[in-house]
Amino acid sequence: MVVGAGAGAGGPATGGPDAGAPSGLAAPGDEPVDRPAPTRRWGVVGLQLTWLATFAVVAGTVMRAMSVSRAPLGNMYEFALVTVSFALLVYSVWSLRQDRLWLGAFVVLPSLVILGAARLWWYTEASQLMPALDNIWLVIHVTIATLSIALFTIGAALATAYLLKDRAERTEGSRGWLAALPGAQALERMTYGIHIFAFPLWTFALVSGAIWAEQAWGRYWGWDPKETWTFVIWVVYAAYLHARATSGWSTRRATLVALAGFACVILNYTVVNLLMTGLHSYSGVST
Fold this sequence. Notes:
By secondary structure, the protein is an all-alpha fold. The protein has helices at 38-68, 76-97, 104-120, 136-170, 184-217, 225-245, 251-275.
């Protein structure tokens, strides 16, 4: 914001030297000073660090692919790397087109949690695929699944921001860092918009998985634990989109359904992968 040293006390009512000067402009002789708000300045620094981190994560994913001479999609560790790469890339590209400084923390924090879990608990040495996974459908099915989950992660981040902002607006009003967020209605529209993109991709992942299963095992569907939970996730997100379009549901209640869908994604990726035995037991983690 540009301010003049004489603005305020010497306005038109007092006949001071700034009389008649438009509000917010520097008076003659004043040097304009551009002082960005400290919170925004730190936000820009955080965004630049996020771009640097995005480059590092993508580079690490590429190097993993080079070390195994295949797409890095064969186990939980590699799946986590690709998912976080997609999430950070989507956010970084989005932030170039529109001001999304306020969203950074909501995306970076879950990305750090996923990467930390991948390094501490899901890390797997570089190795070749088992025969059942050595198929072009691995690249098609799992790539779309990782992109879908990346978008669902951003959707969950937006949903969380919306619920916090909505609660603040309903009670004491937005204060502190919540004041930097867009309005609750704008956040809710963005939440809905990201899920509009993610849901068809998850649908394609579900269908392509069934096609792959028919080629690998001779049946499209067998209610394997992984197949079952993939379908449960699809149902919950379909319920969210339906609730969002139904007048009898408030946007707040519908958003809670979207968060329930993301909770199912987490259960599918952790509990189902690690604790349930089935044809999709490809985590690569020694339990």
